[in-house]
Amino acid sequence: MGIQDLQAFLESSTLEGGAVSVDLLKIARNVTQRQQPQHAARKIRPIGNKLKLIVDAENCLDRLYGGYFSDWACGGQWNRMLQFLTLLMHSIERGNIELAVVLNGTIEKSRMSEWIQEQANIRQRVGMVLKHINTKATPPPKIWWTPPTCLRTALRMALRHLDITVMCTMDDHHQEVIAYCREYGFHGLLADDAEYAAFDPPRYFSSEHIKLTYKGSLETKEYMLSELTKTLLLSQEQVCVVASLLGNFLLPESELQDLYKKISVVVGSKDTKLTGDAAVKAIAEYVRTLPPPSNMDALVGQIFGNSNDKRANLFRQSVQYYLNGTANGFLKYCPPQAPKKEAKKLSTAQNETLGKPEENDFDTSGFASETTEQE
């Protein structure tokens, strides 16, 4: 269980009307005026009559690579990728759509455990691919697709060559993507990540299901977040609480097992172990009985029973993280500041030692090829 269960719930048949098939080119034709700003004091760049979408490239590397084809295991098929991107971008340009593609350039220490798990999964898939090629001598199944090592670098160059806006995040990938989307008045977001569902973007489209058809349409699915809140009977602020209780990089589900047992008893669930759609529904039912996030002290006290619980502070940070991505909270987000390193004072004796070169010190001013064998 984890926050990605919220994304799975959006796509499942359990939530009727949660994912609707749409044609982005048809939506773009209906855009005749720019999106009205939600904050009058905020500067918004005029966006004319184009449908402006921001793309989280980390969620659709396989789609931008050109989809699956049998030779991908041989290495980066860059000509094939560039050909596909050229067709895709020409179709988007003719369809009155403007894209901004964002790649993850951050090193988030708080998400390091997620990165380690992802690298372990990639290593396992690569091992299965090599074993399959060695034993079967046939192309591996497409479910084992693994992005080539320099795919992100190649994508940046290819998209810039095609005159597409490309950016890299620096501090917090998800927060910077949603903040850019709101600040510059984008109509929607193309991604497949449950954290964006908690942020409630203007419109939320699937990057995984995007498909350029031969009939000239650009099809994908739109996630209807209004149906999510309507079905679960929650406000958008309460969705942030649900996302936090499902488990995330700040407060993992492994530390909430006792709380899940408590929720099962409160909501009268027969299954003591909450998973999938049942977990989302049970936690949503439990959250409806809690105080709103605006009364954080009462909320924490009712969940953990004691504000001194070591998880209480992590839960506060988690809820606030998702609130900072919403329309009313994104201006309040501040990137974490790196701790200042204390200057180390060297003693007088050490300074004197460093100041006087020893007899065996070598001259490092020349090139390596000019040094003697002894040096």
Please provide a written account of the structure.
The protein folds into two domains: 19-223, Rossmann fold, CATH 3.40.50.1010; 231-332, no CATH class. Helix content is 43%, strand content 10%. The protein contains 15 helices and eight strands. Strands 1, 2, 3, 4, 5, 6, 7 and 8 form an eight-stranded mixed β-sheet that branches. The model is unreliable at 341-349, 357-362 and 364-375 (pLDDT under 50).
Outline of this structure?
It is globular and about 60 Å long. The model is unreliable at 341-349, 357-362 and 364-375 (pLDDT under 50). The chain has helices at residues 4-11, 24-29, 61-64, 78-94, 112-136, 151-161, 173-183, 194-199, 225-232, 236-246, 257-267, 276-287, 296-304, 310-323, 348-355; strands at residues 19-23, 51-56, 97-103, 165-168, 188-191, 204-206, 211-212, 218-223.
